[in-house]
Amino acid sequence: MQSLDELEQDHHVIEQVVALLADVSSHASAERAFAFGAWVIEFIRRFADGCHHAKEERALFPLLEARGIPRQGGPIGMMLLEHQEGRGLVADMERALAARDLPGFVASAGAFAGLLRAHIAKERDVLFPMGARRLDADDDRALSERFAAIEREAGGEALHARFHAELDAWKQKLGSVSVAAPPPHAVAPQR
């Protein structure tokens, strides 16, 4: 499904940032960790949360719920809870940066990296395959259109291009991170 593949492409970028964050927060100097951390917070707020999570929360999750995947006691509720936990950890990272508290930043960054890795794995291995089985071609088209609108609101292609270029620059500066590209979804939609 094109819409789920789009979310997977976002995941691939987010995983690269999270891998760098985990490495930088535990091995870099305070100045380098703080500089990268400031960029990461902006990336998370504008791309990961402001764009990617917005596509999930405002488009995908409501449609999946309408197609019978439960929010309460189900995977959607868990994903929403983890989005909130992530926002709390980002706020913790931001407070640590403002206070120049390297141990606090490292602890929050490590917790955030672990949360996001597990979160993406749950979406990739559980929620998205469930969704692919419940959504049809019309749903996929509607999601793709809604995703495009959300992307435009968040800054569109210019935002993506900027963060991709800045991520490449950080990888050069800090040492490249190898995160394999996700395979396209093999599960065909069912009617």
Q: Span between N and C termini?
A: 13 Å
What is the number of helical segments per DSSP (H or I, 4+ residues)? 6
Uncertain segments are 181-191
| Counted beta strands | 0
Helix content: over 70%
What is the chain-wise order of helices and strands? Answer: HHHHHH
Given helix and strand content, the structural type is: mainly alpha
Largest sheet: none
Overall pLDDT, averaged?
90
Fourth-tier CATH superfamily name: nmb1532 protein domain like
In total, how many domains does the architecture comprise? 1
User: What is the CATH level 1 assignment?
Assistant: Mainly Alpha
CATH topology: Four Helix Bundle (Hemerythrin (Met), subunit A)
Task: Please describe what this structure looks like.
This protein is an all-alpha fold and 191 residues long. Helix content is 82%, strand content 0%. The protein contains six helices and no strands. The chain has helices at residues 2-27, 30-66, 75-98, 102-134, 137-154, 156-174. The chain is globular. It starts with a helix and ends in a 17-residue tail after the last helix. The model is unreliable at 181-191 (pLDDT under 50).
